[in-house]
């Protein structure tokens, strides 16, 4: 029970009556990737469609919180919706590997227990976030990859399985073809800048429930045209996904730099161990530490009071939020 709830209850008892304590505030923040869009790439109709999917994810997660559910269930529900949307690089909208297939990564973590689960290189599980949660709850391990993750999924009949081609979308196939053409031209000696969003694209959610518990989940298809079983930061606990009892962070951006800086853990450690406000901690890591090494991207997070942060240093970041006071919204570019 939170301190103010206990105080309210004790005052009511002293006055000779027991009055139910007001519900503790909850909060939810989600993202659908940073750095993947500029204004001239996004039509009004497309923006409306992707905002609708962000709203649907907010609805799913917030409904869990409003009925007294756990932060863990809330982030699971929100990320499942985003995994089913073709607009984001996770699940149905995942990018293609160099081989023309999909390799999906996901992670989930509960802050007050430090329980965590993660998977990488998944090929046939419709909702990788559910497989990551199954690893956390039904295995002695934290992180499973590729064939091992698939074999573990075989032991969990509740997980929906699909053919790898189920994740295909035409927009992602065109991005793969463009990446391969760029690769061929570079091999011939041309110098061609990376296209917007080459290293980006992830979905994630962070929630605070009425018990004051924080959870975070992240899911991604990785990098277009990736090879050799490349794994980014999203499924790596501490890099792209992390929660403790004071903070939760889900990151999105150039994964190699989030791995090298252990970005999500860095933010939460500053909050929990040094007492930094989450706004200052997130701003410094996302907009100073990572860019200083040459990386970019963004993150979402919240603290134990429900303070929401959404820093990014790219042209945009798909995001949505429900604050403790109940106000909510979605945004793509810098202005809400």
Please tell me about this protein's structure:
- With 336 residues, the protein is α+β, with helices and mostly antiparallel strands.
- It has one domain (25-331): Glutamine Phosphoribosylpyrophosphate, subunit 1, domain 1.
- It has helices spanning 3-14, 44-66, 71-83, 128-138, 146-154, 170-187, 255-261, 263-274, 278-293, and strands at residues 27-34, 104-110, 116-122, 143-145, 203-208, 214-220, 241-243, 247-253, 297-303, 308-309, 317-322, 328-331.
- Strand 5 and strand 6 form a beta hairpin.
- Helix 2 (44-66) packs antiparallel against helix 3, helix 3 packs antiparallel against helix 4 (128-138) and helix 8 (263-274) packs antiparallel against helix 9 (278-293).
- The longest helix is centred in the N-terminal third of the chain and has 23 residues, at 44-66.
- The radius of gyration is 20 Å and the shape is globular.
- It starts with a helix and ends in a 5-residue tail after the last strand.
- Residues 3-16 have low confidence and may be disordered.
Biggest β-sheet strands, sense, barrel: 8 strands, mixed
> Helix and strand succession?
HEHHEEHEHHEEEEHHHEEEE
Quote the average pLDDT: 91
Number of strands: 12
CATH class assignment: Alpha Beta
Radius of gyration: 20 Å
CATH architecture: 4-Layer Sandwich
Low-confidence stretches: 3-16
Task: Tell me the distance between the termini.
Answer: 34 Å
Share of helical residues: 25-40%
**β content, as a range?**
15-25%
Q: CATH H-level name... which superfamily?
A: (Glycosyl)asparaginase
